[in-house]
């Protein structure tokens, strides 16, 4: 914007932005855009004139207009700020496209500055990069400045240095970890921090790498985008490629936050994958994304399959959304399992005496399952299962299946009872391998059980351990079964020698829960709800209505087991039995169109079909006690801002 005092005129100049593509022949030109001349005298203002100069609005509108016109004239062309960019393999085709765009812009009144244009060049300097048929490299003037970098002596110079180095960050693998010591100077109190020889070494190493960088390729929107995730101890690097090429598009790196540092290594990889997919999806330009990671069957990973999981449930919800995206494929590459990855991926100590699997006479798989109860007043309906068989090579051949319904208990207790059930059916003279997907049960059996028994089943703080009686039975059986070895396997996997047996045990446990649920629903359905029966009777013969049932409503049976209520001005609603109401609230809150949306949304879903006394109170109590809602609310708290830096000493 320019202000001209003699003419008292605002002159607003708007410019256009665009993108970079692969170059063989290129053209750049500046737009000299139509100016808007507005007299400052109020009597000369047009009726629709806006008093504030629209600097913040008009550039975006103008850019959108030119981008739209450019898309109509040549969909392959792109623009950035005041430049338009085209590339072709053949010069005549290139000039035809240029002519079509020039004429098109002239027709809508936009002037093009050909003095700043470069037409049919084999290489150009654009936005600090040298673009050619080989790819994108740092411009010569950037490399000249890089060679002259010196250690800074003020905060302002350090900030300028970091901005300069950040320009070349996509050319350096693991840049975030390497630049971290310099950023710590800005984020710290400079009264006690100094530039040291270590910082100088960091700067010199980055200089050396920047001066030695080679070309990077630009995105080819006709191929799939490949993202290779490389884990590290304090952060990760991911590299983007065009499918079928070995030269990268860019290197991107990230440091784990304080919370992410405490994650299990698998959760760190999920963090890296989610961030890479979200950030690079625009770069894919509608093509599929192929993620190469150091974890096999990454899309099948769940919270239950990760030992010592530290991430909250909202994180797992986000990861699950990324892993189930329809435009992303996941590939396992063991070469990405760096030393840091292997160091943190050890799941449990291997028990002494464990033998190769082909030497065991019997192999047993255990699993426990706990599902929300239906048809009863209890919270969960649980069962456990044991599948016993033999291994023929690497193929599991089941022989026997044992199941047991457990009533109201949680999944951890169900896993422990499954372990106990397997030990009860184990043959003391047969060499047996017992495979369990509960890290809690395996670690306790192999490491802690001996010490618990000596200490009277108390932990290091002299507190009684959970499930003391059950662990006492397990300890007694362990002494009589010296040939039974217990090992851990990850649950819900797709690859591995224990996948088939573990899946059979999982299916058997879930089937037992389903059978128990059907039986409970059948029993509860046969029992009449006394309050509803009293309300129906009161409607029929005029006797007093039960508490909570308004007398202005009418109640009747629609079938043998289902009651309905007719609410004046609203209509007919179903009147479910008491035993069904918690399940209906849970389904509306966790399985509706708006999952975990809050009290009002859950009540709205229920009232569209049901009515019963105390619906609002029961629903509100359920939502306020929802663990997922509480975790999401806690994770949305803001972090404190960093303190402003001061100068070096």
Which labels suit this protein?
single chain; 649 residues; alpha+beta; Alpha-Beta Plaits; Ubiquitin-like (UB roll); 5 domains; 5-stranded mixed β-sheet; extended; disordered N terminus
How would you summarize the topology of this molecule?
Blueprint: E1 2-4, E2 9-12, E3 25-32, E4 36-39, H1 58-73, E5 78-80, E6 83-85, E7 87-88, H2 91-107, E8 111-121, E9 124-126, E10 129-132, E11 135-138, H3 140-147, H4 155-166, H5 175-187, H6 197-211, E12 225-231, E13 235-242, E14 250-255, H7 258-261, H8 265-284, E15 289-293, H9 313-323, E16 328-332, H10 339-344, E17 362-372, E18 380-392, E19 395-407, H11 411-425, E20 432-436, H12 439-454, H13 468-480, E21 484-488, H14 499-525, H15 530-541, E22 554-557, E23 563-567, E24 571-575, H16 581-591, H17 599-607, H18 615-624, H19 627-635
Helix pairs in contact: 1-2, 5-6, 8-9, 11-13, 12-13, 16-17, 16-18, 17-18
Give the structure's gist in a few sentences:
By secondary structure, the chain is an alpha+beta fold. Helix 12 crosses helix 13 (468-480).
Q: What Rg do the Cα atoms give?
A: 34 Å
Helix and strand content put the structural class at alpha+beta
* Proportion of strand residues: 15-25%
Mass-distribution shape? extended
Distance between the termini: 41 Å
CATH architecture of the largest domain: 2-Layer Sandwich
> What multimeric state do the chains show?
single chain
Which fold does the CATH topology of the largest domain refer to?
Nucleotidyltransferase, domain 5
Could you list the spans in which at least 5 consecutive residues all have pLDDT below 50?
1-41, 48-57, 339-353, 638-649
Please bin the fraction of helical residues: 25-40%
- For the residues shown, what is the average pLDDT? 77
The biggest beta sheet, please?
5 strands, mixed
């Amino acid at each position: 914007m320019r202000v001209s005092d003699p003419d008292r005129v605002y002159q607003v100049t708007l410019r256009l932005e665009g993108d970079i593509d692969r170059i063989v022949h290129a053209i750049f030109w500046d737009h000299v855009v139509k100016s808007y001349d507005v007299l400052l005298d109020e009597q000369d203002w047009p009726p629709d004139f806006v008093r504030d100069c629209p600097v913040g609005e008009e550039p975006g509108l103008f850019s959108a207009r030119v981008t739209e016109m450019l898309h109509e004239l040549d969909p392959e062309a792109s623009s950035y700020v005041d430049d338009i960019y085209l590339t072709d393999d053949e010069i005549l085709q290139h000039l035809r496209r240029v002519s079509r765009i020039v004429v098109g812009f002239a027709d809508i009144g936009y002037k093009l500055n050909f003095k700043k244009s470069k037409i049919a060049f084999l290489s150009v300097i654009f936005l600090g990069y040298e673009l050619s048929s080989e790819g994108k490299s740092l411009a010569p003037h950037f490399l000249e400045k890089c060679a002259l970098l010196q250690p800074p002596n003020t905060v302002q110079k350090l900030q300028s240095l970091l901005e300069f180095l950040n320009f070349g960050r996509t050319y350096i693998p693991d840049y975030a970890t390497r630049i971290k010591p310099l950023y710590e100077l800005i984020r710290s109190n400079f009264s006690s921090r100094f530039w040291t020889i270590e910082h100088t070494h960091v700067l010199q190493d980055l200089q050396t790498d920047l001066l030695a960088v080679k070309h990077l390729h630009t995105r080819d929107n006709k191929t799939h985008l490949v993202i290779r995730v490389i884990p590290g101890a304090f952060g990760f690097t991911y590299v983007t490629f065009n499918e079928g090429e070995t030269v990268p598009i860019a290197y991107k790196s990230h440091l784990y936050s304080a919370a992410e540092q405490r994650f299990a290594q698998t959760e760190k990889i999920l963090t890296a994958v989610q961030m890479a997919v979200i950030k690079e999806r625009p770069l894919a330009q509608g093509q599929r994304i192929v993620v190469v990671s150091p974890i096999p069957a990454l899309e099948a990973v769940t919270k239950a399959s990760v030992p010592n999981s530290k991430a909250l449930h909202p994180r797992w919800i986000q990861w699950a959304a990324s892993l189930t995206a329809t435009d992303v494929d996941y590939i396992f590459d063991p070469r990405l399992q760096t030393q840091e990855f292997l160091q943190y991926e050890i799941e449990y100590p291997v028990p002494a005496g464990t033998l190769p699997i082909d030497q065991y006479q019997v192999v047993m798989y255990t699993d426990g399952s706990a599902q929300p109860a239906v048809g009863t007043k209890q919270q969960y309906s649980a069962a456990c299962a044991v599948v016993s068989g033999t291994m023929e090579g690497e193929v599991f051949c089941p022989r026997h299946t044992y199941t047991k319904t457990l009533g109201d208990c949680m999944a951890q207790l169900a896993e422990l009872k499954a372990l106990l059930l397997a030990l009860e059916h184990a043959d003391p003279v047969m060499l047996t391998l017992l495979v369990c997907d509960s890290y809690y049960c395996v670690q306790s059996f192999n490491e802690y059980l001996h010490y618990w028994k000596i200490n009277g089943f108390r932990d290091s703080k002299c507190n009684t351990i959970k499930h003391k009686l059950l662990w006492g039975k397990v300890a007694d059986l362990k002494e009589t079964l010296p040939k039974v070895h217990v090992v851990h396997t990850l649950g819900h996997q797709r690859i591995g020698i224990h996948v088939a047996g573990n899946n059979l045990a999982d299916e058997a446990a879930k089937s037992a829960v389903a059978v128990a649920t059907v039986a409970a629903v059948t029993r509860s359905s046969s029992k009449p709800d006394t309050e509803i029966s009293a309300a129906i009777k009161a409607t029929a013969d005029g006797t007093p209505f039960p508490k909570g049932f308004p007398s202005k409503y009418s109640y009747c049976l629609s079938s043998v087991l289902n009651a309905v209520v007719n609410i004046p001005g609203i209509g007919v609603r179903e009147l479910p039995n008491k035993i069904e109401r918690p399940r209906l609230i849970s389904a509306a809150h966790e399985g509706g169109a708006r999952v975990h949306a809050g009290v009002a949304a859950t009540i709205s879903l229920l009232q569209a079909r049901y009515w019963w006394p105390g619906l609002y109170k029961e629903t509100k109590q359920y939502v306020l006690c929802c663990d997922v809602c509480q975790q999401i609310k806690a994770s949305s708290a803001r972090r404190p801002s960093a303190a402003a830096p001061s100068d070096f000493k």
